[in-house]
Amino acid sequence: xxxxxxxxxxxxxxxxxxxxxxxxxxxxxxxxxxxxxxxxxxxxxxxxxxxxxxxxxxxxxxxxxxxxxxxxxxxxxxxxxxxxxxxxxxxxxxxxxxxxxxxxxxxxxxxxxxxxxxxxxxxxxxxxxxxxxxxxxxxxxxxxxxxxxxxxxxxxxxxxxxxxxxxxxxxxxxxxxxxxxxxxxxxxxxxxxxxxxxxxxxxxxxxxxxxxxxxxxxxxxxxxxxxxxxxxxxxxxxxxxxxxxxxxxxxxxxxxxx
Length: 258
Description:
The chain is mostly helical. The chain contains 8 helices and 3 strands, in the order αββααααβααα.
């Protein structure tokens, strides 16, 4: 007797469907990146940094720094006009701060005007950030180390003074000018909520109609039964009429008299 080993065929087991809430299968695209309410803030801060850097470079390029002339005795002197130009860098910084502050104020009101008092804080913070960025970019381009440069200069050389912001109060021009568009917009302009392109569709929860219909039907059932009983009383119950007919017939066959 020969034994034959037969392997039972292996049936392919269907794979269980992956859960739609599994993080490896389903990823909500709305949760990628920053939340929606933080995107205008991040964009405003990015624009402020970029704007401050660009204006800082322009500030350094347009300023004409006064120079000292080295004489034969290794002394340094400048003219009266050069003395008046010592604060030229501050004047140009105030001009760029006024322009940059207005731009930041308009962008802040346009992007975050619906946030109420937070719009004011965002404008102040973004303007100060842009002002510091402008200040740092201008100082980074120089020149600086005036003492070292004038010590190494030879007779007849012209040495420029250091590029610097000599009055730090000029930094306050940025937030002051950023408040102007917000005050004008909130006082005389339309509210950002009134702009049609800024409105977004409101997502409402789905209305459950089935329970409401079931409850309405449950309330209507007593009324239906009540109406049926009333119709039976008006027309007459067929069973009761059928029972009353023999009684009426017997009364007619055997009349009672006095």
